[in-house]
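New to this. Help decode the following:
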Amino acid sequence: AKGQLISTLPGGKRRGINRVSWPMRLPPPKLPPANSLVIGSQFTFFGPRVPPGTYSVKLIQRDTTYTSEVRIVPDPRSQHSDADRAAQHETVMALYRMLGRLTYVADTVKSLEDAAQQRAEAPPKKDKLRRQLGSLAATLESFRATLVATSEGGWLSGEEQLREKMAKVYGSVNGYDGRPTQTQIDQTKVLGDQLKDGAYSVRLYF
């Protein structure tokens, strides 16, 4: 309805009828790399379900475009009200955007850390500058360890940082079409505040 591109799917190239399946979901959320697996719902690795409404479909074949529409309606067997589904969509989309923002912050911290380490090891190796850069790299690594699990134990360690906590809540909300619990809503706000603090800390390092 807003004219925004939701998904692009590759069509078949075989002669004759080809079938393309749209899961009616956004692309999977972005997760920063870490030394642990996210233990929780399988829906952690699926994008949010698109809301009911009318969607435009374009089939593009070389210079020719065919346009049609599909209408998505709630499952008639569902007991959830429109308000419940709207609350679920609002919450899951907030978590979806937060995971994308977290990935950007964690990647930025890692890039800064790697750059500082490389500069510290590059000639000429002035002792004072090398110590300063080494200290900056260590500080950045300590900060990154508050964003994602970094312990050497891997997924067996059970370590949970902001990435793991956020992904677990996202998976739980994403796997249920009804209204999120008040605990899930409160957790979303708390995790969002922690993410804002982390993003502010990155700006300080710049």
